[in-house]
Amino acid sequence: MRDRKVVCRCEDLTEEEIIHAIEEGHDDIESLKRYTGATTGPCQGKGCLMHIIKILSQKTGKSPDEIGVTTQRQPVNPVPLYILAAGDVEGGEEDSREGGADG
Ligand code: FES
Questions:
Q1: Domain boundaries 6-70, CATH class
Q2: Which residue, 8, 25, 81, 102, has fewest beta-carbon neighbours within 10 Å?
Q3: Is the CB of 11 under 6 A from ligand 1?
Q4: What are the sequence ranges of the domains in the chain?
Q5: Which phi and psi angles does 38 have, rounded to 5°?
Q6: By C-alpha distance, which of 6, 79, 71 is closest to 44?
């Protein structure tokens, strides 16, 4: 059995699959992300983005600065639902819906 070097654990992507995608023409970070799903798992690339940039850099000859990073979507970090449900607590506004937040 061949060694599988997993690059993106969330999406179960190997280095070989990333290299294959680059060779098929997905040689920029956004295209590679959309084609493979890399960096779209629960960790949002925290566990794989740097590895993928390194592979892209080696295969294309571009510097990591030229490659850049994937577009970040909000929220960058997970936000517990109770914080979102609390509303604007710093502004002192209360929930104006009838019955408040509890019903
Ligand atoms: S390890 Fe790639 S998205 Fe989490």
A1: mainly alpha
A2: 102
A3: yes
A4: 6-70
A5: -60, 140
A6: 71
